[in-house]
Write a structure and sequence with these properties.
Largest sheet: 5 strands, parallel
Radius of gyration: 18 Å
Number of domains: 1
Number of strands: 7
Distance between the termini: 14 Å
Shape: globular
CATH class: Alpha Beta
Strand order of the largest sheet: 2-1-3-6-7
Number of helices: 6
Bound molecules: flavin mononucleotide
Helix content: 40-55%
CATH topology: Rossmann fold
């Protein structure tokens, strides 16, 4: 069975352009993949564990090959649960707004929980880094208030798409397709709607062969 994990990184729910486009992808995916299971993870509603001093200490304890304290074990189990849920999926769907040229902080927190040595990536002194989440694909709907068209000066400010592709690639997810909804603010509501509809049509089409 295909298990699709749908990760929503906008708090704007039905107002979110990225979620509206990703919803269309999910609907088309469900129609064209019999028996598919779609699990939705709303990062602004989910009670994510903190990646605080204790969790970081637990991570370093592993890196240094030491034994966890009772407190660290508890903190680390919460991190492992997030990783297990992520790795349990066969493929991924993301709805991602651009915030301050990057990604929303809840998505960054989620990534800080996920990206752990021996769980999602490995390091070998001779071969270097390798991703451990392999054989999986991802579709990402990106929304932006402005425009970051390739080849323009604005492209240099895009730390949203570049970061998502870099970090997913780092853990082994290199088969990534995406659509960009832009501008959602700069051109006014009519332009935003037009761009969103075009993105929905493209997302539906990509979902069929995903
Ligand atoms: C905190 C915050 C920061 C934002 N920063 C940017 C930005 O750096 N560049 C940009 O083009 N739009 C920015 N925006 C606008 C959003 O990217 C835009 O409204 C987009 O449609 C949000 O995605 P959503 O509709 O899926 O929620 C920002 C919005 C918020 C709330």
């Amino acid at each position: 069975m295909n298990r699709l994990l749908y990760i929503q990184a906008s708090p704007r729910e039905e107002r979110s352009h990225a979620i509206r486009v990703a919803d269309a992808f999910a609907e088309s995916y469900r129609e064209t993949h019999r028996g598919a299971e779609i699990m939705t993870l709303d990062l602004f509603r989910k009670d994510l564990p903190p990646f605080d001093g204790l969790a970081v200490q637990a991570k370093y304890t592993i890196l240094h090959g030491e034994k966890h304290s009772e407190e660290e074990i508890r903190a680390w189990r919460a991190v492992e649960a997030v990783i297990d849920e992520f790795k349990g999926a066969d493929c991924y769907l993301f709805a991602v707004p651009i915030w301050n040229f990057g990604i929303p902080y809840r998505l960054k927190q989620y990534i800080d929980l996920l990206v752990q040595p021996t769980y999602t990536f490995a390091y070998d002194p001779e071969k270097g880094y390798s991703g451990l989440v392999t054989g999986k694909s991802a579709f990402i709907a990106y929304a932006r208030g402005g425009e970051y068209t390739e080849g323009t000066e604005a492209e240099a400010f895009d730390f949203q798409k570049k970061y998502m592709e870099t970090i997913l690639g780092f853990i082994g997810i290199t088969d990534i397709s995406s659509v960009v909804i832009e501008p959602t603010l700069q051109g006014g509501p009519d332009v935003a709607q037009e761009k969103r509809e075009a993105a929905i049509a493209r997302a539906r089409e990509l979902a069929r062969s995903f």
